[in-house]
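For practice. Supply one:
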Amino acid sequence: MKILYVTDLHGDAGKYRLILEAAHTNGAAAVINGGDMLPLDGDLHGSQREFIEGFLSGHLSDCAAAGIAWLGLPGNDDLKIHDAVFDKVCRKHKNILNLAQRRVIFGGFEFIGMNWVTDYPFRLKDRCRRDGPGYIFQAQFGTGLLSTPEGFRELPDWPAYAEGLPDMVEELAALPKPANPAKTVYVIHMPPAGFGLDVIRSGEKVGSAAVSRFIIENAPLLTLHGHIHESPEISGVWKGRIANTVCVQPGQAKTVLTYVSIDLKSMVVERFLEPV
């Protein structure tokens, strides 16, 4: 079975259309979206909801009508307050599936998603977690923010607040368990540490040690990541291997659509960059 994987589209309607066209061209059974699906312009409480109920709902209907499954999850830049709306849109169709903290079976493979990320300096904290016990917070760019129906809730002491939340180790442990890891694909927005998939423009490596350990301990067939758009450009690495697990982080750029094609039987993985 062939799938296409894309991540970090941030509301770019043209890229959504191109990835569906690519799925047709490549004979893909499914498109997997790794998160950060929604636009970042304007009032996010309004613009992101409008995108879900408008363009994204129509796009997912187009996928369903074409017989192409769509499996995805919100990312750290997608306000958590919109999760219920996204879930409602997904439930309109049989093979349009929200993967966030869920396990689904498609085409004889298990897909398990997680969209928590290791904390970063940016203010939006809806999906941020400490990486593990003793985690040292980076210098922050301001007070933390959580989305609420009324607007953003300000957190004057984000590190203290985060200490009361589960960490990445605990969130990973809470995921549904696969029946057969050798036929399991994890879609984890946060990239693992130590494999060149997590390098920001400064050259600093910001991946999750918790995610790396989880992959080593659970040995799935494949893991799909995103979050650090520029990492493949900076490190020169978009695919790695942890023991028998293939790990993919295709990256994303403004001027091109970046995605990968994966044959889950042969494990042939190809990366594509198409002008937009």
The chain has a mean pLDDT of 98. The CA atoms of residues 258 and 273 lie 5 Å apart.
